Amino acid sequence: MLETISLVLVWVSTRAFLWIALGIAWFAWRQLRQAPPTLLGILLLPTLFISSLAIHFLISKPLFIDLPKQQQYLAEHGIPTKGCIYSVQDTAIYVNRMPMLKITLDYHFKGQDYRTELKQITPHSALAEIRRGECFLLLVDPEDPTSIRFH
What are the TM regions of this chain, as residue ranges (predicted)? Predict the structure, then answer.
């Protein structure tokens, strides 16, 4: 039940700013049909419209739509490789009371060495395993070797 509610909230939040932008455009169109435009209307409504679209395409879409698609792509097409933790930093961000860590990983893929940062929400039970020098199995995007996830 909670998972369904979470999915609905994510769906609504990813599209909220897009609907706000469309509502502003509709309101502006109605105002222009009813009365001559004022200076405030000419400046304010396009600014609100553009800022709502910018929030949708620059913040909401990359975080809530593109990132899960990238993770799903890596799960299906990623090539397994061994990676070791170079450093771990706390980001001071918590999601459902679990810390988000910035983990720097070193790995070897297709004859080259890579060092990539990965932000990962980590359960408290797994914190003891996440330390410098520990090695894990990673999934690496064959087209973009800097795109990784834990296997």
Answer: 7-27, 39-59
